């Protein structure tokens, strides 16, 4: 009995504690700089809800169509493998950290498109060799022909849509 | 899309000051010079000398050389870029070199390919801008949106024409009989086979739905007698469409399309031969067992003929119209009657029934 009275007293002194909202939604939000030096590509500048309206997808295949979902998880895993390989294999030539690599699938062919830059070092023979190696390696790994159709730009500024 | 950049600034960099001092920092304050020079003027909390460790590198640092260059103290040889040869051999964009009027585009872009801004001589732009009048949409070079979308630059009208010319030798002319008379298709080609091939991306080209085969047979072309036809229709059940006169056989129980096709042909053969068989119990067939209500042998026919004969015998009742009540008009009425009895009753059909009946009996319309 006594304990319960104490309990009630303790309850009466309690209050609902409130804190400010934690606005954790960070997708598509870019932080601007005071001197407008932060580079934004078109892909970055458009918000996630603009996908399919203002910007299109970074992966093109038929496995996400109705009645064609036969190996969708495989496709997602393959995409990640390809993206990581390209990021790791062309570290000197990446544009915006290799976040914008387009993967297209046509028939049994996997096509990797996007942009690379040569501002640091232009070694044409080396690039040809690396393209050949990447194509061959990914073809063996994924058991299907892989084509690299990546275009070179002078520097990262060439893909800049805006500076904020 | 989000990219983190760590920009660290050294707020208290002593190195820069030391460099400035080394180059010609005579105008700096004395105290600063002492500190920068690594003097022993600074005491630590124990009162001992704080000897700052600073090892000047033997080579001149970048800032030092830049300052010396700027002030003209020394002359430095300007060296060309180490990748100069590669940069010189770099080709200018092909779109600038090419003459779009003279060259064949099919040779430049023969097959499906990702958009390449250096090759396509079109002044295209893609992307949105909040205010297009102020700033034009994103340019062709380095435009990822143009790279993403599938293009049809390999399917220009001349390219399609070229392809058609190339495969023309494999084509046979369309049958002229069918061109002149399209309705004769079912007569010349009584069996049509439908199947679907599914093309989609993936390492496997198999699709289980491609095994389904639909076979459509124009039953009238089987040249069966009336009894045989009725038996075939009864065996085919709901596979026979009365309106079009076509029987549809859909086979999907085998694994491959070829097997299903063979099975469909087998089913057709079996149906055909089964329909031709005459069993003992076929003779037991009654009028009520027929698929359709027949005019011949019906109560209506007997009553009608009886009525017509009575009318002929009656002297006062002479048929007004010529030829009413003869065999031809009875047959005509019979056809109408059969259609009326074997289909859904509508207002028009009932009116037609009345009209025919009046005509048969010679009553004024």
TrEMBL record, chain B:
InterPro entries cross-referenced by the UniProt entry: Ribosomal_mS35_mit, Ribosomal_mS35_mt
Boundaries of every Small ribosomal subunit protein mS35 mitochondrial conserved domain copy: 190-279
GO biological process: mitochondrial translation
GO cellular component, one term: mitochondrial small ribosomal subunit
Domain of life where this protein originates: Eukaryota
Coiled-coil boundaries: none
Example GO molecular function: structural constituent of ribosome
Protein name: Small ribosomal subunit protein mS35 mitochondrial conserved domain-containing protein
Protein's organism: Caenorhabditis elegans
